[in-house]
Amino acid sequence: MSTEGLEARVDRSDARPLHVQIRDILHQQIKDHILVPGDALPTEEELQQQFGVARSVVRQALASLADLGLIHRQRGRGSVVAAAPALRRFVNRAGGLDEQAAARGQHLRTHVLRLEATITPEEASAALGTARTWEIERVRYLERVPVIYERHWVPRDLFPHFTVDLLEGASLLALMRDHGYASVGGPRQVQAVAAEPDIARALDVSVGSPLLLLEGVTQDVHGRGLDRFHVWHRANTVFDVDARVQAPTPVSQERIVQLRKLVSDLESALTELEVGESR
Prior knowledge:
Arc Repressor Mutant, subunit A, Chorismate lyase, 2 domains, 33% helix, disordered N terminus, transcription, WH_DNA-bd_sf, UTRA, DNA-binding, GntR family transcriptional regulator
């Protein structure tokens, strides 16, 4: 464990309770990787001495960190920084992220930050064939840890009924399907980017932290754009790709007979041409 940065102190002029300040200090040290997964936190007695507070205050702070899933508290062994849960998803599969997490015994929770009729970016307008869109921002949590930040544009004329309450905790593609617009996927691309301030704040990471950005368009069976999206993933996301070598197409016996006949006909034609030229 690195000890750099562990000298932080509480501010008694701060309106926040002392246990909240201690929680936030330790939380920031985890975000900044001063404390990394597997590191043991200072003991309750050491934290009590460092911050000059009662042990009950330290215990409240540690309990809050445990509730956030940031540390594990073990009787007789103290507190240890928890590893961020890994989210796995198939990059070549549209939708079904909740089901993919559930198949691994994980629960993915969705919280809507914003739903507004705003000015549509040109790339979204072109993909959706309209500038009348909803802009939706969501954060998705895995085991209480924010792992995905999403920004979507969807046509308002197709989905005029969308509300924050309707979208909260729901699958966007399932809602589209329930209202008569089944998606079949569309083009996607993945790239590594640095976390901008608003996204870093939503994902509880430091500004500039590496993220994986998945962006693309979801279309229906008629090629109509249903969703233009940008989805930022924390670095603990694993993208699975089922890559296969395409097997050669087998040639039927009938086709072989046809090709042999064609070769025979060509040879006969060449022979006739050669005989004609020799006369």
